[in-house]
């Protein structure tokens, strides 16, 4: 099986497990994530943190985002510009949050675009060394690559439930590894940073 086919199979399997979690279990797990990481994610006042509004059965990181904002972070959300790229728009009082494509929600075009210092990254599956499987469209891989070309190196924190961990993710050259992952069981660092 090719790495691409194996990733597709792992994605389908792990998303099915996530989808099978009762809503109340996902809510409790999401709140546990905020408790685990709300005070320990290293950030300086003014750091820009990219979160996301949950779609489908994703973890809800909005409580975590509020905790980080209360510690001085500026918040932003990814916005899909077209079928290939996302940008990050700052989440500010007075700027409408609107549907931004493919079921996502983010600040409208009046919000300034920013480069995140820390990215909370939704994913389908991850392994114990920080390799991840996204949703298959490559939005985050392209956005991270674009930021790195500009000399910006955001810390990448994967957001998942425990059931999304797999023994091994087949890593390909274009894949970007996580610095850490946050699940309902806790916060795990993979690399320094």
TrEMBL record:
- List where this protein forms a coiled coil: none
* Source taxon at top rank: Bacteria
- Keyword terms of this UniProt record: ATP-binding, Magnesium, Metal-binding, Nucleotide-binding
The cofactor(s) it depends on are: Mg(2+)
Sequence positions that bind substrate = 58
What does the record give as the reaction this protein catalyses? (6S)-5-formyl-5,6,7,8-tetrahydrofolate + ATP = (6R)-5,10-methenyltetrahydrofolate + ADP + phosphate
Q: Name one GO biological process term.
A: folic acid-containing compound biosynthetic process
Q: Name one GO molecular function term.
A: metal ion binding
Q: What is its EC number?
A: 6.3.3.2
Q: Which residues bind ATP?
A: 7-11, 132-140
Q: Which Pfam families match?
A: 5-FTHF_cyc-lig
Q: What class of enzyme is it?
A: ligase
What family does this chain come from, according to its entry?
Answer: Belongs to the 5-formyltetrahydrofolate cyclo-ligase family.
PANTHER family cross-referenced by the UniProt entry = 5-FORMYLTETRAHYDROFOLATE CYCLO-LIGASE, ATPASE INHIBITOR/5-FORMYLTETRAHYDROFOLATE CYCLO-LIGASE
Name recorded for this polypeptide: 5-formyltetrahydrofolate cyclo-ligase
């Amino acid at each position: 099986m090719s790495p691409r086919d194996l990733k597709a199979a792992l994605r389908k399997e792990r998303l099915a497990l996530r989808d099978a979690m009762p809503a109340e279990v996902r809510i409790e797990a999401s709140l546990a994530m905020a408790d685990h990481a709300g005070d320990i994610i290293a950030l300086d006042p003014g750091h820009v943190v990219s979160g996301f509004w949950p779609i489908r059965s994703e973890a809800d990181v909005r409580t975590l985002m509020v905790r980080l904002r209360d510690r001085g972070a500026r918040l932003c959300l990814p916005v899909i510009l077209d079928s290939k790229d996302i940008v990050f728009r700052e989440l500010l009082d007075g700027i409408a949050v609107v549907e931004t494509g493919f079921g996502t929600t983010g600040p409208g075009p009046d919000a300034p675009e920013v480069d995140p210092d820390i990215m909370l990254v939704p994913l389908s599956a991850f392994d114990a060394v920080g390799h991840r499987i996204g949703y298959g469209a490559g939005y985050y891989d392209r956005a991270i690559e674009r930021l790195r070309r500009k000399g910006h190196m955001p810390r990448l924190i994967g957001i998942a439930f425990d059931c999304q961990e797999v023994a091994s993710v087949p890593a390909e050259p274009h894949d970007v590894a996580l610095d850490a992952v946050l699940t309902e069981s806790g916060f795990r660092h993979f690399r320094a940073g």
